[in-house]
């Protein structure tokens, strides 16, 4: 079986959770199934002759995804779509900053995305057919067209599918298979030798991840907070606001870390907190949980689907809620039950097997066996 992965053009220059998902899925499928070859290509006009199916990632940039879809359909290829979908009107109206928040309150989600499309087309270099389609058809309509063309959806959770059904109201049942987010147990694990004395928040610095409210919450807490990440150039204003909000010396910001250094920080953290406006559920939260941290997560998205009653939840827009959840998590002993469950149920091996199950279903083939060794 030969599969082509297609996704946003800046997948490696502006890395995110989808970057990890794509690379780890490819790595573990190829390691476990010797007869499956996977290529990655962001060319919307690629020759697909040699591929059995096309696996496209990410509905959040429909101006690119629709071009991959149209190209695959024109060449009669079956399409799997990892939806990587979220939408939060609440976030756009409350969590965004400055002018963007004000415009969202006036013209709504689709209006804001059209404006962003115009900016991308005329100023930011995305002068192509897909951006024009977004401007003319609208964000939601273009995403609905993507859903209609996909042969199989691969969401990260049932909650993601519920949101898709709620927003797009499909006229027929959607063909889907849940493929969970996961951790690499070869990299992350519980180290009993370390002294845990900090609260950690790892991830890109941006309004959706909500580090600004977390900092405001920590200005009234006795614990040490370490924020590990980086801000894209488009989020410099947000990063500046984060630094300005720090009032005490119990808050430290460090650069984005490699796996080795991040593993050490997980080992020092009694709590990992990600108070996002929406998450599915956040790869760093899974990594932190398997590393022995108690988890504070947002109430929005698929977090409860993954963590159940084994995490502490906060309302992203409520600073007191964040403060309370962190305090409760810090005061509780290590949750070994959550650590064991993540290690057992959310690994890249399982993600690979589940994805290949989807491929076999799409192609009407028997599911290939895992390679020996």
Automatic annotation (TrEMBL):
Residues 192-337 form the Glycosyl transferase family domain. Pfam families: Glycos_transf_1. GO terms for molecular function: glycosyltransferase activity. GO terms for biological process: lipopolysaccharide biosynthetic process. Keywords: Transferase. InterPro entries: Glyco_trans_1. PANTHER family: GLYCOSYLTRANSFERASE WBBK-RELATED. This is Glycosyltransferase. It comes from Paenibacillus dendrobii. The lineage of its organism: Bacteria, Bacillati, Bacillota, Bacilli, Bacillales.
């Amino acid at each position: 079986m030969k599969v082509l992965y297609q996704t946003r053009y800046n997948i490696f220059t502006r890395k995110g959770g989808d970057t990890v998902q794509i690379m780890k899925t490819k790595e573990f499928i190829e390691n476990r199934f010797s007869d499956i070859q996977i290529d990655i290509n962001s060319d919307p006009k690629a020759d697909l002759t040699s591929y059995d199916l096309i696996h496209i990632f990410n509905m959040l940039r429909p101006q690119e995804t629709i071009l991959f879809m149209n190209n695959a359909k024109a060449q009669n290829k079956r399409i799997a779509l990892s939806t990587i979908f979220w939408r939060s009107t609440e976030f756009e109206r409350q969590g965004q900053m400055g002018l963007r928040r004000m415009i969202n309150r006036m013209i709504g989600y689709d209006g804001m995305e059209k404006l962003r499309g115009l900016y991308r087309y005329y100023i930011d270099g995305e002068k192509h057919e897909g951006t024009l389609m977004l401007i003319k058809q609208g964000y939601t309509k273009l995403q609905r067209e993507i859903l209609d063309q996909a042969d199989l959806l691969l969401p990260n959770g049932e909650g993601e599918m519920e949101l898709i059904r709620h927003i797009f109201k499909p006229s027929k049942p959607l063909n889907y298979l849940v493929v969970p987010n996961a951790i690499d147990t070869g990299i992350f694990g519980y180290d009993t030798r370390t002294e845990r004395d900090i609260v950690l928040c790892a991830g890109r610095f941006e309004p959706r991840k909500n580090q600004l409210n977390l900092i405001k919450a920590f200005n009234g807490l006795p614990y040490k907070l370490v924020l590990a990440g980086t801000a894209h150039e488009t989020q410099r204003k947000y990063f500046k606001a984060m630094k300005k909000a720090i009032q005490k010396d119990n808050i430290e910001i460090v650069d984005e870390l490699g796996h080795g250094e991040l593993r050490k920080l997980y080992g020092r953290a009694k709590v990992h907190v990600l108070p996002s406006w929406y998450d599915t559920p956040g790869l760093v939260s899974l990594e932190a949980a398997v590393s022995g941290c108690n988890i504070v997560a947002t109430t929005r998205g698929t977090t409860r689907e993954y963590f159940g009653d084994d995490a502490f939840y906060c309302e992203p827009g409520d600073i007191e809620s964040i403060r309370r959840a962190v305090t409760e998590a810090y005061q509780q002993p290590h949750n070994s039950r959550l650590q064991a469950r993540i290690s057992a149920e959310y690994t890249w091996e399982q993600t690979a097997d589940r994805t290949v199950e989807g491929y076999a279903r799409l192609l009407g083939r028997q599911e290939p066996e895992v390679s020996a060794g």
